[in-house]
Amino acid sequence: MPAIHLRQGGISLVIGLDGGCPQVLHWGADLGPELPDLGILDDAVPHSALDVPVVLGLLPQASAGWRGRPGLCGHRLGDGPPGFSPRLSLHGWFHHGREATIEQADEELGLSVTTFLTLHDGGLLEMRHEVANRGGTDFALDAVSVVLPVGRAGTEILDLTGRWCRERHPQRRPAGQGTWVRSGRHGRTGHDSPLLMAVGTPGFGNRHGKVWAGHFGWSGDHEQFVDTVADGRTVMGAAELLGSGEVALGPGEKYATPRYFAAYSDHGLDGISEAFHRWFRARSHHPSMPRPVVLNVWEAVYFNHDLGVLTELADSAAELGVERFVLDDGWFRHRRNDLAGLGDWYVDEGLWPDGLHPLVEAVTSRGMQFGLWVEPEMVNADSDVARAHPDWIAGPAPRHDAGSPLPLPWRHQQVLDLVNPGAWQYIYDRLDALLSEYPISYLKWDQNRDLAEMGHDGVPSVHRQTLAVYRLLDALRAAHPRVEIESCSSGGARVDLGILERTDRIWASDCNDALERQAIQRWTGLVVPPELVGSHIGPTTAHTTGRTHDLSFRALTALFGHFGLEWDIRQVRGAERDELRGAVGLYKRHRALIHTGTMVRADVPDPSLMLHGVVAGDGTRALFALAAVATSYSEQPGRVALPGLAPDTLYRVELCYPGPDAAGTTFVQASPPAWVAGGALASGRFLAEVGLPMPVLNPEHAILLEVTAR
Ligand code: GLA
Fold it and tell me: Which atom in ligand 1 lies closest to the alpha carbon of residue 490?
């Protein structure tokens, strides 16, 4: 059977092209350059079944016998037959290096589907479909799924879930017969978005087990699923959830699915992360190093904007070594609290008689970049813009006046209908004006509500709204290419590769509690590399949980991300201030390593301990953090492995922060392990296989180990 074989980064993707339905015959470990005659893979035909082997097409369809979730649902409008069951078959293909394009068509139905596949350097597979209406009438499209087969060994599912201030926590279950679906109808990616759906061998861990995993690069409504059908095959995939009647393709029109990104690893989740991180870092627009230390003033002042206080904060920040100062919510017209003002993107003349210039001057004259918070997709009913343009508020029916019904409010706000060209242009012009008037280096681009009953002119519009937001970001980036943009969405409700193609970091969560952040960042890091994950040292007592943590635990948690501060640092004095200045210095010293190295996560049997680290690409340096996230069942941690180092290299391991004699409450031991005093010398193999005995940590404390090749 003719086939396309893409090979890259230890991965093979084999697509059979036998003239009927193109089908993925293998996605997983590299098979080497030579393939046997693939006819040997034709399945048996069981009793009480279709009379021919069932093909899982590149786009699964009932016409090829597939009884799982169909790849394409829709029907033709007009007087002719609706053609509810597509019979797509191979029409043409193109293969060059690690890219392939495959076209299928159903001539009778007047539909063609082109599939684009790229296997990137680190083995990350990128896949999408484009559906074209070649008929003479409209074609109503309900769903198009991107689907890949999972190896038979994959029998356990892991995906992520969450809520505000607790984003991206894992859940597991066996992949039994049936479908496991995660649907997101938030109009945004969602706090509870799975981020990644992984299927692996039972008990697969951070560094062991075979894993197949997929991520959907889309910021609107979506579904991700794992489908195990009666014949024993398992597929994984994703689709955009289209609203009823939302997509009717006119003759000649096309619909493009968002991109699906998929990785296979034979050494657990770390292999999956490696594929994603390598893909991010290979992009030409990946943010350049070094990532500046941020002060965000939200948890320092909230809406209480006062030039005097903010200037004191700028002073204090500069003294600590901060490099970027971000003015959060509260600077624009009518915005004294979260009840009003969204949409009125003019600097408030009462608060800022001279505009933001005095503050910008205070910030930039102290050598820091200036960043500004905006929430361009939203509007308060209590705003000048909503009063002037009630029809710009998105809802289920066209809105002609202020009396028309509105969707339920969320944080007192509504969604601006960016599908409306007037509304889109107004927002573009306002942001463009701000970026032109002030030397703004950074926008914190927020999006603080789910989209409910989202419509434009009475037709569901999440699809078009999402594309309009992308267009807005693209246009502003083209006009202001040096401005970095953060994707924030009530914390971490918009983390996906669609938004990250046009932004430079994400705000992982509104929760700055270091304990919560340990988990949130671990699981965010499954896909997103640390240089793109905003991570701040918050106040001593976290505002969102009431928990109090030592500075060292907060600093070590923020260290493994794009580091910053978010509290009233004017109040930090004496020894604590010295320690904070030291933490900023620690980040600056190590950011190049943290932001380019390979992320490793150990499989520590004691669930109270998390060990993660980052190893330089050339294996000469590494940093590891051991965090106690709960009380342990054992008296002391004993030996903990430090994985991922070069096996035959000799390393020195030193306890770097907090020092063994540091003040604070990190340690609870009569004496530390012997090696702590002078450092340990051992090979990478020894450190991975035997490990080192660790100090006894109090819960909610962490230590940093610095590892250097000798
Ligand atoms: C959202 C963000 C916060 C902050 C506030 C401002 O909740 O996630 O970081 O910017 O909005 O209103």
Answer: 8
